[in-house]
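Name: Phosphate-specific transport system accessory protein PhoU
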Amino acid sequence: MREIFKQEIEQLGLDLVSMAEQMSTGIEKATTALETADLTLAEQVIDADERIDEIQHSIDEQAVSLLARQQPVATDLRVVVTALRLSSTLERMGDLARHVADVARGRYPESAAQGPARDVLLQMATQAAKVGTQTVHLLQTHDLGLAASIESEDEVLDRLHRTSFEVVLDDSSELTRQQLVDVVLLGRYLERFGDHGVSVARRISFLVTGDLTNAVAAAETARTSEGA
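Structure predicted for Phosphate-specific transport system accessory protein PhoU:
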């Protein structure tokens, strides 16, 4: 019975990595679609989001079943509860990648913005794609150094997000009304993507160390990102 439980715990981890890999691929493709106005890539991201949702449902069902059947304690309990939290966060990151792709598709064959606004958005998208890749590696390795790096580098997206507002408020910008809306929305999507990456990092830190401070911080990050 214990061997079966161990295998089920391991499967939770593998499914989380698979979910993260698809999320990471999604934000990478969405970034390229935003940069090149690639309609095919944008639609691939939108279609693939359904698969991420399916994995989340599977993970949640597995975790609830383990809680009911095995009544895990200590480290095992942390693993199962963390899987439930992570699946929700990764699903939201997948949604945000889809939102970026939605904007890219909606502006096809044109780009979502131009000039300085476009430059800032592409920098944000590139940084978000980096967060996606780092998140996959973190789930594979549980490397606390990487978790700390994800959290500290979130300032890059925050700074670029502030810059995007400066561009929007610049009277000399030649953005159309639609482009202004797109810049504001895309900036929010990409900044929130980074916030969710921080939430993943903090939850992994809690999983490894059992330090509740990280768990509370992760919950606060997730709460402030709701509705994004």
